[in-house]
Known about the structure:
The chain is mainly alpha-helical.
Amino acid sequence: MDTLASWKKEYVKMLKDWDKNYCKHMSKKGTYEEMNTLHMTAAKPLTELIESNKNFHHLELMIEANKKKGNQIPVPEFRYRALQEKFCQKLTAVCELFKDFGTDRLEDHFDIK
């Protein structure tokens, strides 16, 4: 079955497995702290993008739940715009990295909003 829920469950499982293996590999017992610092720095833009996407998605779920319940208390518009702007900034940062350093460089102008 190829649904969003099954894909998400599989994705979370893969991330947990990777994290477990990575933490075991990068523990202080047998590896270089310098390499760990390098990996964490390289993964920071993607980590920030995933975090901002999660926050934005949770807000969208809250808005949808309010609509289904018929709540009269709306989610503040400034909150939605702030999270949307933060997500766009992080996605733009990742796209800039692909534009500058990717194997298939982004040549065209990208407009995320």
